[in-house]
Amino acid sequence: MLAQWLRSQRENAGMNYTQMAFRTEKVRWASLPKNESAKCSADTLLRAASGARGVPRRKVVLAYAGACGANLAEADRLWKAARYRQTQDAEPLKEKPKHIARVRDFADLHLALVDLYRKDGARSCQEVEELSGGRLSHSTVWRVLNEQTGRPTRDFVTHFARACGVRDVALSDWEQAWDRAEHRRTGGRKRNSRRPVIATSGSMIYLDRARDAGGQDMWKLSQTMAVPENELLERLEEIALGDCVLSSKELEAARSIQTSQRSARSLLALHAGWHRD
């Protein structure tokens, strides 16, 4: 359908491929970097319209349409539809993705994210990083899509959906889907995002719940007041966490930090498996 549409646009414009190639250099669209040209050769345009080599690159399709004076939004829509069919044929999803409003857990959410990614053309992870304004790293995008990491964070879902073209009110549907999945995972229990640490000086320090780059739970050591490094390291074993105390593994990690004399302001990688919620 895409190739047929491209051919019909050239016929309507009444140009040959050499003429079109000359005009592609002046074609621009919003996501095309300012220092990048849309210029394509006549052979490249011919191959795109033939459909013989699968779905052409998005840049080629938009340059072709622009050279013919065709609607770029329609060209982009047809390209995404063609890429979606191509990826579905090459690697069908294990289950039919649910509508985002019906997502209930993280398994549902993962399928929905992959489906959204494919419907947006299954761009490279590097492109997704660029479209997110650098808020998502290409490596994290790859790991989430390929289930090579833990649960995605709420911020990841928001920025990923936006990078894939979701806008305005529709973004809240994705954020609410994450909320439902997290609620189901925790059984509705509220998770403390911060645990207090009282130093002997009376200063308050905190262990903040956080996520590492791969989406795994961890605790981050932070301070609200300056505390001498040696005091903090010496008192890590005496940290009072509400009605519980650090586990043996957490104490072992604290001793390791003390032995190595690492800065007290570094990340204390205490993963969720080391503590009790």
C-alpha termini separation: 54 Å
* Biggest sheet strand line-up: 1-2-3
Structure summary, number of beta strands: 5
Helicity range of the residues? 40-55%
**Number of structurally distinct domains:** 3
Uncertain parts = 237-246, 257-277
Give structural attributes.
single chain; 277 residues; mainly alpha; three-stranded antiparallel beta sheet; 12 helices; 9% strand; disordered C terminus
How would you characterize this protein structure?
The structure is a single chain. With 277 residues, the chain is mainly alpha-helical. It has 3 domains: 2-90, no CATH class; 100-186; 194-274, no CATH class. Helix content is 49%, strand content 9%. It is built from 12 helices and 5 strands. It has helices at residues 2-13, 17-24, 42-50, 58-67, 72-90, 106-119, 125-131, 138-145, 154-163, 169-186, 229-235, 248-260; strands at 194-198, 204-211, 217-223, 240-241, 244-245. A 3-stranded antiparallel sheet has the order 1-2-3, with no helix packed on it. It has a two-stranded antiparallel ribbon with strand order 4-5. The protein is elongated and about 65 Å long.
